[in-house]
Amino acid sequence: MATTADMRNGLILKLDGNLYSVVEFGQNKTARAAAKVWAKLKGVDNNRSIEHTWNSGDNIFPVRVEKRNYQFLYKDESGFNLMDNNTFEQIIINASMIERPELYKDGQECFVVFNTETEVPMGVELPPSVTLKVTYSEPGVKGDTATRATKAATVETGATVMVPLFVNADELIKIDSKTGAYVERVKS
Questions:
Q1: Range(s) for CATH 2.40.50.140 in the chain?
Q2: Handedness of CA 137, 141, 145, 148 (dihedral sign)
């Protein structure tokens, strides 16, 4: 049994029969009342986002999850087709369970999060950053770099990313998979 002292970002909790992931949490302490622990929760098995408050020391019900290495093969009308890197078994995941689906390219390595109690996939995540090739970008205007100006660039998956003016077509860039933001240019 876990308590609110065991709360951390990314923890999967069972609350009112649904599974939620902890996005952010903190404590409120007042002079006269007992401390409270609050958390912003994102639904794992539904698309709801909620906030919940517990008294400090209350029991919480974490769910044990396991991340497994998979490879993205292709997308079709049935969903995203993934292959287990160890057993070579293929599974189909609904697009709503995919985090940042616009950043997936054929052969991309990803992680499928499984509920270990039921062996049901709960979601798919990318590594912290992905490297993609810029397929189209307007040329930058010389001398316009003092204001940290950015421009739109289309990458090989079809996603549009805001990049600095010096990034051109046919260059490799690193993208943060959590935010979808440009990180750096990659030397090829």
A1: 65-125, 129-186
A2: negative
pLDDT tens figures, 79-130: 999 999 999 999 999 888 888 899 999 999 999 989 888 888 888 889 999 9
Q: How far apart are CA 119 and CA 15, in angstroms?
A: 19
CATH of 65-125, picked from 3.40.50.1820, 3.40.50.360, 2.40.50.140, 2.70.150.10, is 2.40.50.140
Q: What pairing do the DSSP bridges indicate for beta strands 18-28 and 12-15?
A: antiparallel
Tell how far CA 63 is from the center of its chain: 19
In angstroms, rounded to a whole number, what is the distance separating the alpha carbons of residues 134 and 185? 10
**DSSP class of 95:** G
Is the whole-model pTM more than 0.85?
A: no
Residue 175, beta-bridge partner list = 130, 182
Q: How far apart are CA 105 and CA 159, in angstroms?
A: 11
